[in-house]
Amino acid sequence: MTKKYSLHSSIESIKTELKQLNKNLRKMIITENEVLYSAAEQLFNAKAKRIRPTVIFLVSKLINENSQISTEQKRLAEITEIIHTASLVHDDIIDNCDTRRGVETVHSIFNNKIAVLAGDFLFAQSSWYLANLNNLDVVKTISKIITDFAEGEVQQGTASFDSNISLNEYLEKSFYKTASLLACSCKATTILNKSCISIQNDFYLYGKHLGLAFQIIDDILDITGLLSDLGKPPGSDLKNGNLTAPLIFALTKKTELKEMINQEFQFNTNINEAINKIKVTNGIQKTRDIAEEHIQLAINILQKKNYRKKNKYLLSVTYNTISRIN
């Protein structure tokens, strides 16, 4: 699969909206509590990718007759980014991550209690702005994301260091933790446009497949990436007992990995040794194949007659997801 369109041109097409989004995010997390505000603001100082708002903006331009983005859709993009950021705070506490995107995490600067409260504060703020959209269908759709986050965390926690985890269990957890947000936010974007049910379903599936592909690629990069690119040490997922597709596939070829998992990678050298063992199997390629399947499913939706004429910017973002590991 090759990248056919320029990602730069896609970002340029919504440059103004992304710039305003960054300004609005800080206005939306204002609080009189200095510690809570500092903790929340810390999250928006990191070099975020803004993938989710980018997708929402581009879906909006694609489905709107005048190729414009409504005020409500812009607010939805902001709400989605706050929800995503809130989930990262809790993730970092659970995984005991000291850095994210090369920046110190909230709990490492303050403490776990403040970090939990900062995450809760962001969820509360997103809920407030969500309610003010005055669209019950959108509220129901976006609220499902927060439920799915919790479900995903519980599934990941109960499967920690479980060498018997199946690929289907891994994909289900990946949906709850990552793909649900994109699926539901894409659907909510179409609801705000008063699109018909078939279009709502199309973009729910588009977001689901793109979200799964994005998470799967992230899991490959956790094995193959560099500290300077990841913003955190390679193998962080393994160290935290989060067993992903490359390892699941590698287990069939390198059975000694199972013993290392059962020992919970207790020795520092175990992580690097496990990474090297995964790399010499076909686990990474098989994982990439799954990501490409989901990207193709997302592209197939964009290639439908209804969307074909104006889809080049959204296609470029979709293709770029897989090119991150080229």
Question: What is the gist of this entry?
Answer:
By secondary structure, the protein is an all-alpha fold. It is 72% helix and 1% strand. It contains 17 helices and 2 strands.
Write structural notes for this entry:
- The protein has a single domain, classed as Farnesyl Diphosphate Synthase (Orthogonal Bundle).
- The longest helix has 28 residues, at 197-224.
- It has helices at residues 7-13, 15-28, 34-43, 51-63, 71-95, 106-109, 112-131, 136-158, 167-192, 197-224, 227-230, 236-239, 245-250, 256-262, 268-279, 283-302, 312-323; strands at 99-100, 103-104.
- A two-stranded antiparallel ribbon has the order 1-2.
- Helix 4 (51-63) packs across helix 9 and helix 5 (71-95) packs parallel to helix 8 (136-158).
- It has 326 residues and is an all-alpha fold.
- The radius of gyration is 20 Å and the shape is globular.
Which secondary structure elements does this structure contain, and how are they paired or packed?
Elements: H1 7-13, H2 15-28, H3 34-43, H4 51-63, H5 71-95, E1 99-100, E2 103-104, H6 106-109, H7 112-131, H8 136-158, H9 167-192, H10 197-224, H11 227-230, H12 236-239, H13 245-250, H14 256-262, H15 268-279, H16 283-302, H17 312-323
Antiparallel strand pairs: 1-2
